[in-house]
Structures
1.
Amino acid sequence: MFLHGTSRINDAGHLEIGGCDVTELKAEYGTPLYIMDEQLIRQRCREYMDAFRASGLGFQVAYASKAFSIMAMCRLVDEEGLSLDVVSDGELYTALQAGFPAERIHFHGNNKTPDEIEMAIEAGIGCFVVDNLVELSLLQAIASSKEVTVNVLLRVTPGVEAHAHHAYASTGQTDSKFGFDIGNGSAYAAVQQASDKANLQLLGVHSHIGSQIFETEGFQLAVERIADFTRKVKEELNIDFPVVNLGGGFGIRYVDGDTPLLVSEYVAAITDAVKTHFAGIGSSLPQIWVEPGRSIVGDAGTTLYTVGTNKEIPGVRKYVAVDGGMTDNPRPALYESKYEALLANRATEANEETVSIAGKCCESGDMLIWDVELPAVQSGDLLAVACTGAYNYSMASNYNRIRRPAVIFVQNGESDLVVRRESHGDIVVNDIVPERIAKKAVTK
Ligand code: LLP
């Protein structure tokens, strides 16, 4: 397994992260356990901030909290000077409870409810990323009833769709549930409407072209399309866009063969493209905002499991089951995502067998890794799966009423609990048995 950040194998042959031996972490916190390498998260934050500072452009780096939204993470991101992107009242509440400065919160989503909009306006958030005309009217109505003016970016689809492992395509994005299409004129119409509305301050446009992107071409093409659009809006409507938000999607290395660029390379490609394509539109270059999620937290996360049972099917394969699975990491089941693993308590031993790692849910699709080489695995061994920091805890479920794991931050030989493991009580905390049914049970 590739060792990310501060991960290393110590003299005892154990995996160590942030100076903490995972066998000790297991003894203290149990498994499954999400272990977050705090130093690596901070390093990624700084890579973004430094790269943008070096560009000389105005900027905000908004951490896309959907990747991993907990209060400690919001605090850490605030300390590092980033902004925050939220998509629901739950993510907004988490940020506010953590004391994240509201003016650096951006609110996304294709179906913000009136309650969510009210909550965000009352909190005084920095910007709404408006997705459609229904939202535009709703936002204006609520802002005017509260006699405030709110900042708005319009989410646009520039006709660029990019995915890792696929070539970027310049068509296809028109058919998206998100945003106003530039190509078919709806973005232009939305700019006209937004700029006409009292109580809305139109700052500019937003685009997000995909996820786990390993190349710069898609971002550069998006910048070019948005610059052409900005020029048209300036020339025909005399409207300026002081802000252009280019979303997230910067790729990370999950497994051998993944070839992400350095953060500094993505940022330089974007800021250079902005300098080239926005030159001469309006009096100054726009501020550039981005929204990295996965690339801030993804490789900082490791999930630690305890091995339980196994099943060998002669001539077919050996299944090794761990005490978690699709409930703590739904990505292999959802997206066929690939992960690497190592035997964390015997990390220096030579690989002896090829096994497939199964979860404990009642579902055949609950597999974490197909065909991984490991030393001879035994019950009680610790299995570490790398690169689980993004979209694991945030997408975890209670399927089979399995309790969600604890999350810890580790750094400099110390560990801190940042989310406690769910208890059996948590599993039933919202359950209500209507009295008529409860009575029946008693009289039986
Ligand atoms: N901004 C917007 C508007 C987004 O929709 C997203 C991700 C991001 C930023 C952050 O993208 P990132 O830098 O993390 O790639 N559950 C999937 C990923 C869904 C991403 C949704 N939007 C997964 O586990 O791969």
Note: The chain has a mean pLDDT of 96.
2.
Amino acid sequence: METKIWDVRNYVDDLSTYPQVQEIITGFKADEIIAIPTETVYGLAANALSKAAVDKIFVAKGRPQDNPLIVHIYEIKQIDQFASIPNDAVRALMNAFWPGPISFILPLKQHVLASSVTAGLDSVAVRMPSDAIARQLLKLSYLPLAAPSANTSGKPSPTNADHVLMDMTNKIYGVVRGFQVEVGIESTVVDCTSYPFRIARPGAISAQDLERVVPGCITEANFEIEKPIAPGMKYRHYAPDSPMELVKDISKLQLCEGEAVIAPQSELSRFDTSVTFALGETFDDITGAMHQLYSALRAMDTMPSIKKIYIADYSHVKESEALMNRIHKATSGK
Ligand code: TXA
Ligand code: MG
């Protein structure tokens, strides 16, 4: 299959004026899988009501069948069709953070979504993205779209359309080319099937952010526990091809031939620029680091001379939890 590319960057304000927009919408309705931008990472989207469509996602990504997908919606009232909102606390969080980079795991209504979407669980993760292109596609199709990150399973999530094409060329029906994403790491996932809620995957919206809206709504999560809260967390994720090691004190690091370093710009001046990749300006620039992490990991994969990667430890920095969660996964805890 030759993957179609729809460059919609000049039509973001009103996607209905894009000449091929109907081809995209018809594709979704005909059970095709299409990569789309969101504000977190690019997603590989398909009609969540169709088993045939959702099955194609698992094949294209090489994703294990027991790892459920997030369902994307345009407006809250769509949830009613396939899930329930268990209490006012969930509703308050949705109103505060949607559209935006956060997913809520809700009790599932049976026999509406393709069962592969939820991997047979009795709950479903739901998100209303804020990205303008994603929102308009969700509105125009008016379908609940199941969309995992649009990478090959085990690769870093794509933060631009070129990353998607690296992994998915000729494996999927099409790619909607938008801009570089805003956030750069996947949405916060909050398990709302019991109260207080638990963060199943940390993201740009933190537990403190949620607590500010509904005090006491989040219980401590331990992401290192044996039994993962989110099934996806047991898989090795976001890993570059070369081994990568966390460095506690980057100021003491010495690089040998074939070694590279990923760290804030402020720490990189003493190294040869050909083997450095900046994550934000300084250690305090967590937003910048999240934005650039996956590009850095992918860049490393395109440099065959690099045999070993060192990455800075941000754990001493406030609000670094989600960033460090992804770095730990990429280093497999080394
Ligand atoms: O930002 C994002 O969330 C992106 C964009 C495309 O929206 N999507 C994304 O999807 O990251 P994915 O499939 O790569 O990650 C979904 C995560 C997995 O860790 C999965 O195990 C968890 O959400 N998940 C989904 N449904 C679940 C459920 N019912 N119970 C527990 N965890 C669930
Ligand atoms: Mg993913």
Note: Residues 211 and 217 are 6 Å apart (CA to CA).
